[in-house]
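New to this. Explain these tokens.
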Amino acid sequence: MKIVIYLCLFMFLSDADDKIVNSDDLEGPNVCKRVVTENITVIVTEMVPYQETKIEWCASVPPRCRKTVIKLKAVNKTEVLEKTRTIQECCNEYEIKQGTNLCILKRANQDEVPLNKLCNAGWTGEFCHEPCSDGLWGVNCKNICKCQNKSKCRKYDGRCLCEFGFTGDFCEQKCPNPFYGNDCTETCNCPNVSNFQCHHVYGCRCTDGFRGLSCEELDEQK
């Protein structure tokens, strides 16, 4: 009988998981994922049985008897485990642009880019490695955002990302009472007095002309 205790397995597997490439490491089009298999060496402790003979006092003549017992001893050894992980890399014929996390055509292929090449939605530039400027979106960044109240649109589909306190397709509406905040998901729980109001951005606040924790003080500056 033997018992195997994996002393370092968890540590090694945790380290391996930390090496998985985060999806934020590479951005933009032309980024591919690939599953790779790696061998990880771990140290294990195996409890190996062995016999030990000793002399004990006993009721015989002479009163000394030989006794054999089975014990276990720890033996360290290494094992190789197979671990898979997902990595990100530039797709075929693309390479990382120096100093960035964007994939562009390899220099040997840049002369082959057709002049009428269409970039993926949200990207522009000679080699489709530049994101659309603020206020523009879509294929080759030809569309203009229609978002209001300082809100921005997603560069690949034009969907408005509303600032706190606004909602609607174009962020044209304030959060309806009693809601406020990001995507109007927060609910005001203001005291039931007339000096409080639910602000569409900040939540419960004093009405104009009042201040203080209970909104009972007159604001002379108003």
User: Anything to note?
Assistant: The chain has one helix and 19 strands. The helical segments are 9-18.
